[in-house]
Every structure is written in structure tokens, then in C-alpha cells.
Amino acid sequence: MAFAVSTSLGHAGVVGKIEDGSYIGLRQSTTRKLSFSLCRIGVRGHTAIRASEDRSASLKTSGLTNEECEAAAVAGNFPAPPPFVRPRGPQGTPKITPLDLIKRPRRNRKSPALREAFQETHLSPANFVLPLFIHEGEEDTPIGAMPGCFRLGWRHGLLDEVYKARDVGINSFILFPKVPDALKTPTGDEAYNDNGLVPRTLRLLKDKFPDIVIYTDVALDPYNSDGHDGIVREDGVIMNDETVHQLCKQAVSQARAGADVVSPSDMMDGRVAAIRAALDAEGFHDVSIMSYTAKYASAFYGPFREALDSNPRFGDKKTYQMNPANFREALIETHEDVAEGADILLVKPALPYLDIVRLLRQNSALPIAAYQVSGEYSMIKAGAVLKMIDEEKVMMESLMCIKRAGADVILTYFARQAANVLCGMK
């Protein structure tokens, strides 16, 4: 056994190398009580063995004062450092000449502390808007295509859900009503009934939680007997300007009931400017508009339409919602909405359209929102039930990707579940 000995004031340090390539370190304190620290570093891993006559002595200093330690350092008497041993690769690792690399990006990823320090994108419960389905009933009704989501009774279940969400830092909500079929008409007049489901719910929420932010959906499809976002002409054409007239009355009714942000999701031309003018004419200058700027005619909306029973009675929505194949068209909608006075621009769906989220982020200084829609939510839930994916990890990764693409606000049914994770709760 070969020993290398180093000494210092009041200390003796001994390091020995034994046959299998391991090391033994011994330190003798000034009290002459031996305190052994045996570190064995094997070929395949690390095994730590500690034995001590007096454990408290091994955890304490030598007993010297700070001044004595400084004097020893000035005199060149330094305490023995712990032995440095470079960890070995497994048996069979090739012997090579290291690559001549100036840049090694992995250096900034080598530890959790470094990875956290250099993380570019961060999620917070403040980034989430929780969509809430409401109905006239007293009891909460589960939505089959959206596990964990319910049509909430507007008097009771809704308040309980908002309370739980606020408890984990979520203070923004958007309302979607399930309107009784008997109240649906071709012109959607129930949309601006001041005593309708949404206005009543707004007043209740503002009374109970005055500091929350409430977004509302401005569109006719929940109220239209044809299931479309606008008034349908007898030849099947969705009427644009007549629909915008109805949307303005709907937005004003919602603002009157206490909405903080009205969100036209109909994709009619010119509706942002018209709604802004209508709100201002009624004195609602502080009510914001979150425009569904790039809302695509997507197949990912299926579970949502089941939740609200708002499937079109005929045809589809491709004459007003955008073609999923189009990228540049989103710029046209962006420029129009900005010019017309939108306060927030939204992309829907989110994850399949991250390139559109980035496009809006690069072409507008306004806040960007993205809607992680029902199909995205349900796919993650279904994959988790089949044990194909880790639900929590995929959920958080998907939300992080949406934020990374440029979204400031994310509308997601995972809001409360994700906030629990961010708060360290299970």
C-alpha cells in the first residue's frame, strides 16, 4: 500500500491507495482522537463507508480559531484536501483522444441547478385561463368525452370550482353556457338576454369573487338553433354583417353584467371594430377584447361541441373558420384585429398550431393567447388511461411548449391540475 502524507498545523492527513484502485483517507484531529473516513471508489460505482469513534468530532473544525486558521494559511500550512478521483467508465469503454471542441452545450445542462438557472421559459398559474361549462341545472353533469370536466350548476358547482382554482393561484376564467334547446332560435336572441345564463353567472361570480378576471365567449353557436356561429340564410350562407350586429348586443350585455374581457370567437369579418365601438358607446371603455384571431376549422373541437351540444345541424364552419393548411392567412387576420382595436390575440387550437402562435408573437406586440382545446385535452387523458403516456409529464410539457412558442395566456382544461403541480401539490 502506497501512502501520500501531508501535514498542517494541528492536523495529519493520510491518503492511501490499495490494490483495487480504491482510496483510504485518514484524518487525525488535534485531540488525538482518530476519526476515520473511508471512501472506496470501485470500478463499477461508488461505495461510501464511514466509521468514527466520535462522529461529532468529524463534523467539527480542528478547534482552531479563525485567526489561527488565517495565520496557518499565511504561513503556507494548508489542511489536506480530500482526494480527487476521476470517475471511470464501464468496463470496455474505448480509450480515445478527447474531441477538440471549443463549445460543449452540455456543460450548461450538467446539473439540476444549472438547468434551472438557464431555463428560458417558465409556467405560472397566472398564465392559465380555466374554461368552465355551465348549465341551468343544480347538479354537476360529467362530460363523457372530457374526463374530469363537468357541466357545472351555475349556483353551486361553479362556485366550488372557482374556489378550488383560486386556492392554487388561478384567477382567470372563461364561461361557456349549455343553453336549453327551447331557448335557441335562428337569430340567437338569447345571447343578449340580460337575465340569461351567462349574465346571471357573471353577476354571481363578481359578487362572490370580485377580484377574479372573467372572460366571456361572444358567438351565437350556443344560442343558434342551427348550431352555427352566425345567422344562417335560407340558402345555407352564414350572414356576416347581420351576425356582427347580434354580437355587439351580446358583448354589451356581458359587459353590463361584469365581464372583464369579451372574446369574439365567431370569425366574422369586422366584428372587433364593431364590438369596440358598441362597448365604448355604452361607456365600457375598460372592457377588453380578446379576439379569436386565428381560429381554424379544426377536427380537435369534437368533445367541446358535445359539452355544449353545439354541433352544426348541417354543413360545417369552413366558410368562416380558417383552413388548417394556411399560414400566411393568419397574418391578414392579425393585422385586421390589431387595427380594429383588439387587446389580446388568440390562436385556436394551440399545440397543432404552435407555428401560428410564434407567427403572431413575432408580428404583434399585443399579448398572445392560445387555446389548448378539448381534443388536445381528451387525447392526453385517453393516452394516460391506456398507460401509453405519463399524464402529468405530457400535460406539463404540452403547456410549456405552448408558452415557449410565444403564448402569454393559455386557455386549458388542465389549468387547475397543472397549477397543483406547479404549487408542489398532489
Quick gist of this model?
The protein is α/β, with parallel strands linked by helices. Helix content is 32%, strand content 21%. The chain has 2 domains: 2-86, no CATH class; 125-422, TIM Barrel, CATH 3.20.20.70.
Can you tell me about this structure?
Its cofactor is Mg(2+). The chain is of the alpha/beta class. It folds into two domains: 2-86, no CATH class; 125-422, Alpha-Beta Barrel (TIM Barrel). Helix content is 32%, strand content 21%. It has an eight-stranded parallel barrel, surrounded by nine helices. It has a five-stranded antiparallel β-sheet with strand order 1-2-3-4-5. Strand 13, helix 7 (271-281) and strand 14 (288-295) form a beta-alpha-beta unit.
Outline the secondary-structure elements.
Layout: E1 2-8, E2 11-17, E3 23-28, E4 34-41, E5 46-52, H1 55-59, H2 66-74, H3 112-117, E6 128-135, E7 141-142, E8 150-153, H4 157-167, E9 172-177, H5 197-208, E10 213-218, E11 231-232, E12 238-239, H6 240-257, E13 261-264, H7 271-281, E14 288-295, H8 302-308, H9 329-340, E15 344-348, H10 354-363, E16 368-372, H11 374-385, H12 391-405, E17 409-412, H13 415-422
Parallel strand pairs: 6-8, 6-9, 6-17, 9-10, 10-13, 13-14, 14-15, 15-16, 16-17
Antiparallel strand pairs: 1-2, 2-3, 3-4, 4-5, 7-8, 11-12
